[in-house]
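Recall the central idea of this unit: under ordinary conditions, the amino acid sequence of a chain determines the structure it adopts. In this exercise we apply that idea directly, starting from the sequence alone.
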Amino acid sequence: MMKKYNMRGIWIVFFLVIQIEAGVAQNPLVPDYQEKPKEPWEARFDAFEFNVFRKDGHVLPFRLYSPDNMAKGKGKKYPLVIFFHGAGEKGFDNRTQFKRFNPAAFWKKYPCFVLAPECPAKTAQTTNAESVWVDTPYGAQSHHMKKQPTWPMQLAISLIRRTIRENAVDSRRVYVTGLSMGGYATWEILQREGKWFAAAMPVCGGGDLDYAPELGRIPIWVFHGAVDHTVPVSNSRDMVAAIRKAGGNPKYTEYPDVDHGAWTPTYSNPEVWDWLFQQVKK
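Accordingly, the structure predicted from this sequence is:
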């Protein structure tokens, strides 16, 4: 037991050294509430464990919520909800990813795992492809998916694969959602790993129209503000139209007077989460 604890301590020091060299003195495993006091919105995520995922010299902070009643349901499998945050929440503190995620507490109504990785912010030592989920101009009318995912997306895909493998996850009920940059991430991971998902909810993002025919079998509910000045609403409209043309039947909600904050009315609506958890992969 002592050996395991010491190794964890060594890794914590290792991560701190990396971040201090990059000019970001934060520990993704142990929050510093003195340096950065806890904000009111953080309290609802207290039960989400602090973790990190490592691969090929890269580090991805993430938070993981596990169902409260797992001990009572021995042998039972639970849904997994993956959340991708937006560009304004990048960092390394393992806290900021929740800043604009203010959902109805669906994990209490529907016992499930919730996985929320944090995309590292760009530093003087990193490239753009190391600090975004999807490497594309978010104000563009369309984009084409790159052959290789960015490093944060590569790590997120590997992390999801490991989470499904090592936890009591019901593989028929894996869901993904994300806002803004995370909306793009939602579309991209559907395009790359669509076989994993029972349903998806991209919020004010955009996908690659070339992949629309491959997404028809996945229940998708798309959300966007009609007066979005950050990510053009045509990104969602065009993806929905292309999937429908290919024989799919995605749901689409467009908020008439909403700019880029479509996540607020979306995630706070309990009916959205009721719909999500009704979806089961056949």
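The chain has one domain: 26-278.
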